[in-house]
């Protein structure tokens, strides 16, 4: 049900939040369960929309998915996997980006895969050309039908020598999920190596796969004829952790993020320190806090791992509106991820967006018509405004801007935030945020 948040800003967020399994791993590990010939158990599963969507898609395909009512652990039994109609699958059209990753596992399990229209954040065109290209190289046949994409492999899936034009996270996962049970050896050059991909590799290895991550973005997979189920605890959501860290900076607060893992946040923690935030790491999480005084402006470029993750950019930009001086952010992963700055400008921030590459990372968007660099001048006093949430991270950014602003903000479209932040309203209350929720 749609609702509106009325936020009374100006209060520092203080306290503890817990983060659980990563949104960018958990649904993919669920898809991997289809590759096994025995059941799998996935632990540390968050209550987010993509988990619901994938649960439903697995059930539509005959996988028995049960959730432990106390722990939330998922038990997935794929032994009765079956075909589903396009009408059943299309009930999830536009819901998530994960359905494209069902291709390999469904072909291995039932001989064909039907893919509905994809959803996910609207932060650029987000084509699936790399996915379809690698599937064809494995021997799959791709038919675009009026209802969606039908993928089959009349002659089976065979290992291949592949190279991605850009280290796409999703296309790398597509290769992993397809190659592990394809016949022969697959070598992927130009692979993405995000921590969530390495955790997916850990899941597949538990299932019996043989995967080597070589240097220079090369992954080698030796196909095996069968895989078994796995038992795995998902790695924590580093993007949620980084968001709460930015929330602490923006509201001049102090947030302990239980579950945050330093190893996967190295690039973020360096930037957080340079901007003037303080953090303390212990065995169970990381405390992020604003030490008082002014924040420092900086020059930042988003990049694939091990660079500064694009999903950290939007909340950090809000912190940069509070830094003393001019900051520059060059977004090199998505061509259109600064739309959210319009609402920040209405709240009083000084941010200009430019078509030029304001950075040194060679970027696919230079000399084209994409507003993918931002210049932020601070510190700006933020005031409450009416905001309609545009996408997941943009929405979180608007929430933290509203929480720091003077006066009242009215925020609609907050359902999108549930895609990546489980029980965020409860967490915000626990941190002392002052807001009301009303059904629309
Ligand atoms: C569910 C999930 O895990 N989402 C994450 C995943 O998205 P996702 O896997 O969709 O992102 P990709 O890494 O594939 O996209 C990176 C870039 O490659 C382009 N591209 C991608 C595929 C393709 O076939 N053709 C193509 O041109 C995209 O438009 C984008 O510009 O990685 C992104 C980059 O770290 C994160 O922001 C998302 O949070
Ligand atoms: C872009 C994101 O997610 P998705 O790929 O699911 O749209 C995100 O998590 O910021």
From TrEMBL:
EC number: 2.5.1.7
Biological process (GO), any one: cell wall organization
A Pfam family this chain is assigned to: EPSP_synthase
Segments traversing the membrane: none
Binding residues annotated for phosphoenolpyruvate, in chain numbering: 23-24
Broad enzyme group: transferase
Active site, renumbered: 121 (proton donor)
Location in or out of the cell: Cytoplasm
Catalytic activity: phosphoenolpyruvate + UDP-N-acetyl-alpha-D-glucosamine = UDP-N-acetyl-3-O-(1-carboxyvinyl)-alpha-D-glucosamine + phosphate
UniProt keywords, alphabetically: Cell cycle, Cell division, Cell shape, Cell wall biogenesis/degradation, Cytoplasm, Peptidoglycan synthesis, Pyruvate, Transferase
Highest taxon of the lineage: Bacteria
Record: residues binding UDP-N-acetyl-alpha-D-glucosamine: 97, 311, 333
Principal location: cytoplasm
Pathway annotation: Cell wall biogenesis; peptidoglycan biosynthesis
Residues with the 2-(S-cysteinyl)pyruvic acid O-phosphothioketal modification: 121
Record-level Gene Ontology MF annotations: UDP-N-acetylglucosamine 1-carboxyvinyltransferase activity
GO CC term, one of those recorded: cytoplasm
Domain Enolpyruvate transferase, residue spans: 8-428
Family: Belongs to the EPSP synthase family. MurA subfamily.
Function: Cell wall formation. Adds enolpyruvyl to UDP-N-acetylglucosamine.
Protein name, per record: UDP-N-acetylglucosamine 1-carboxyvinyltransferase
Species whose genome carries this gene: Falsarthrobacter nasiphocae
Gene behind this protein: murA
């Amino acid at each position: 049900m749609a609702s509106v948040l009325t936020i009374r800003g100006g209060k520092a967020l203080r306290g503890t939040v817990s983060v659980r399994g990563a949104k960018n791993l958990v649904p993919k590990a669920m898809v991997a369960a289809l590759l096994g010939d025995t059941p799998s158990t996935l632990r540390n599963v968050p209550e987010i929309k993509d988990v619901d969507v994938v649960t439903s898609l697995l059930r539509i395909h005959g996988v028995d998915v049960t959730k432990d009512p106390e722990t939330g652990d998922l038990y997935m039994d794929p032994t009765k996997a079956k075909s589903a109609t396009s009408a059943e699958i299309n009930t999830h059209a536009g819901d998530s980006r994960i359905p494209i990753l069902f291709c390999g596992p469904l072909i291995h399990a039932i001989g064909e895969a039907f893919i509905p229209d994809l959803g996910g954040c609207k932060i650029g065109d987000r084509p699936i050309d790399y996915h379809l290209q690698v599937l064809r190289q494995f021997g799959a046949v791709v038919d675009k039908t009026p209802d969606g994409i039908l993928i089959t492999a009349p002659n089976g899936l065979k290992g291949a020598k592949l190279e991605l034009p850009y280290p796409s996270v999703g296309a790398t996962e597509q290769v992993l999920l397809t190659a592990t049970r394809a016949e022969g050896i697959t070598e992927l050059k130009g692979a993405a190596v995000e921590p969530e991909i390495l955790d997916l590799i850990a899941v597949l290895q538990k299932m019996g796969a043989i995967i080597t991550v070589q240097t220079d973005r090369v992954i080698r997979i030796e196909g095996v004829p069968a895989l078994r189920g796995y038992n795995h605890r998902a790695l924590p959501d580093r993007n949620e952790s980084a968001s709460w860290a930015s929330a602490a900076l923006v509201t001049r607060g102090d947030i302990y993020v239980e579950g945050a893992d330093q190893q996967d946040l190295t690039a973020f923690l360096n930037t957080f320190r340079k901007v003037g935030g303080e953090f303390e790491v212990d065995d169970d999480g990381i405390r992020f806090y604003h030490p008082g005084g002014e924040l420092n402006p900086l020059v930042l470029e988003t990049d694939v791992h091990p660079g500064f993750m694009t999903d950290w950019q939007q909340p950090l930009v809000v912190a940069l509106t509070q830094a003393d001086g001019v900051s520059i952010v060059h977004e090199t992963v998505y061509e259109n991820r600064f739309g959210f700055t319009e609402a920040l400008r209405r709240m009083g921030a000084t941010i200009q967006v430019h078509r030029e590459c304001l950075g040194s990372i060679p970027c696919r968007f230079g000399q084209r018509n994409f507003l993918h660099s931002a210049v932020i001048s601070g510190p700006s006093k933020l005031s409450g405004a009416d905001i309609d949430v545009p996408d997941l991270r943009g929405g979180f950014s608007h929430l933290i801007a509203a929480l720091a602003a003077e006066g009242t903000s009215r925020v609609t479209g907050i359902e999108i935030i549930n895609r990546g932040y489980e029980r965020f309203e409860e967490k915000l209350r626990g941190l002392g945020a002052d807001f009301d929720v009303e059904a629309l």
